Amino acid sequence: MTPVDLPAPKRAQTVAAMVLSLPLGVVTGAVGAALPLLREDYGLSPTGGAELVVLYNAGAFAALVALGGSWTRRALPAVLTALVVVFAFCCAGMAFAGAVAGPGVGWPLMLALATGAGFGYGGLVLQLNSFVGESFGHRQVLMLNLLHASFGAGAVAGPLFMGALGGVSAVLAAAGGLAALCLPVRRIALPQPAAETLAPRSSPVALLAMFAGISLLYAGLESAIAASASTHLAAVGYPAADATALVGLFWAGLTAGRLVVPAVARGWSSHRLVLTGVLSGTAALISTVLPTWAPVGYALAGLGFSVVFPAVLAWAFTALGDGQRVASLLLVANLAGSAALPAAVAAASGSAPATIPAALTGLAVLCGIAILLPLRCTRTKTDPNPKHWNGKPHERTTPLPAAGDRPDVGAVEDQAAGERA
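^ that's the sequence the OP posted. Answer follows.
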């Protein structure tokens, strides 16, 4: 059975997957934003607490590496149950670590729980992306964007609620409780990866490396915009508080775009969405050199870039077939890019924050160049069996075999020669 033969997932499983993405975003967005409040709660130094973010991401990295193998398909219900329980338990523990542990114990306990929550987060993100990327046929890009939009909404809402409530406990406890209610997600099923025939000029490893490179560059670009936009806005005359708040326009554009763009561009191939998103986002970044326009430019950049990573996932799933292996590597590359490239952008802009748009644009151009590489190794073919996609032929971007390796080519040429005679 190939992925296209699977029946549509049950609605309860799909809803659980989409809803579960929300608390994953809440906690991920809150871990960094909560540091000022946690420093007060745990008596940390004014610059302390960064190890919380490091350990959360380390847990996520460990899950992506450990759970990216094919063995998780065979044990998927048990794996998903364990991940949901670990994530929910650790979130609830983080909410009350300071209250239940004695002095000197609360912060180490918080760090341990953050590592566990990160592991649950990384494993769940991997399985949810694999499920959505392999199970929805021609709606693949739309559903991946909805999944990422749910995550983005949570990442925006978490810090906002913490600021409004003046603490982290209620938000973390609510996120853990909501995650626990999503246990029906354990019933999702992943298809066995389809075997693909690769062109001689490419290999699965080379193609996967190309997609990983795109993922690394894009994630670094997104994180660099979020990290440096406020510095740029402050440098060109915006008050510090306003500059910080205006960065929210980028996240708003990113989330709104994942809801709107796939519906507007329905029927577009994944690689067309990726290219259009990068080109439009890059144009918006160039426009931020105008001080009065810069906030709008960052919002439009978020709108343009919004579809890039979900569409890259869909493109890679279709081209390579093994969604779980692909998602594991691309998400690891995503984490690496988010960690490394913002510092590179800061170093490139040096002591002149007004040059940040130029550094961001350069990174966006590199991402666009990287996208051209898999385009050279994949071509478009149409699924000959229309019943797979609700009566509509499905256009897939997959590597095609060379003409010499296809027995049908000679037959077609012989037939054409006979007709000409």
